[in-house]
Design goal:
With 265 residues, the chain is of the alpha/beta class. The protein is built from 10 helices and 8 strands. Helices cover 41% and strands 15% of the residues. The longest helix is centred in the middle third of the chain and has 22 residues.
Length: 265
């Protein structure tokens, strides 16, 4: 089954964080994801968030370990930052337990001047293995995310889906997988369906937004129903997250995205 979820930080941004949940549910969704919930509910608010999700009939699919540039939670690319990063992984896994989610997104951090590409890549692989050990014991899968460096994340280390898949395969850990963000990888590579097919053995989650602009999925150059049909036909079963910034009234926009992309049995 492919279940479509919604990123809480990008929708209904005019209302408090937890008040977004019933509005997302009213648009027809049954799962959400979030970047850094503590910024909205506080470090002690995860139980409250879980109860609010339960009341709205929603489950939390995933949260994020660290910021793309490493400013929150440290970086995978620098071996010297590994203790800080792993401490953040442990904290995130505790929060996953509180929220009842079994997926966590990790970023590589920005490339480090003074460290060779080879040293940074090796650090990412080794860091994923170490983090994977922690995640596996907690019953959580970590998904590492390539991002685009042309529009949104200049300087980010991992901007290639092929390299991302290669790193995950080299790490060879059952709790370390790949997040394929269709928006970011369309910006960087294009040919998303064929690129996905080549990496589907290690992909555990998807993100989606319209290209260009990162707005509604039916705005721009991508045909998302065809993309989801293709990954379903290729055997993918899991979550597919809408991480877009509505350019229209949010309730109507989400309802239309729900009709555009129903869950696939």
């Amino acid at each position: 089954m492919i279940e479509i979820d919604v990123c809480m930080e990008t929708v209904f941004t005019d209302v408090p964080f937890l008040e977004r949940l019933p509005r997302i549910a009213a648009a027809g969704f049954r799962a959400v994801e979030a970047w850094f919930p503590e910024m909205h509910v506080g470090d002690d608010g995860f139980g409250r968030m879980r109860r609010a999700c339960d009341a709205a009939g929603l489950r939390v699919n995933d949260i994020v370990v660290n910021a793309p540039d490493g400013s929150i939670g440290g970086s995978l690319v620098d071996p010297a930052e590994r203790p800080k990063y792993l401490d953040r992984v442990r904290l995130t896994l505790d929060r996953c337990r509180e929220l009842g989610c079994s997926l966590a997104i990790t970023c590589t951090g920005n490339a480090k001047p003074g460290l060779s590409r080879e040293v940074q890549r090796r650090s990412v692989v080794d860091g994923l293995r170490a983090a994977g050990d922690l995640a596996e014991r907690a019953g959580v899968v970590l998904v590492v995310e390539p991002l685009n460096t042309l529009v949104d994340h200049a300087g980010y280390f991992l901007d290639s889906p092929e390299e991302g898949a290669s790193i995950v395969r080299e790490a060879a850990h059952p709790a370390a997988r790949l997040l394929f963000d269709v928006y970011h990888m369309q910006v960087m590579r294009g040919h998303v369906i064929e690129t996905i097919r080549k990496s589907l053995d290690v992909i555990r989650h998807f993100h989606a937004a319209g290209v260009p602009g990162r707005h509604e999925l039916d705005r721009g150059e991508l045909h998302y129903p065809g993309i989801v049909d293709a990954i379903a036909a290729a055997g993918y079963s899991g979550s597919f997250g809408l991480e877009y910034f509505p350019a229209e009234a949010h309730a109507a926009s989400l309802s239309r995205m729900r009709r555009l992309l129903p869950d696939r049995a």
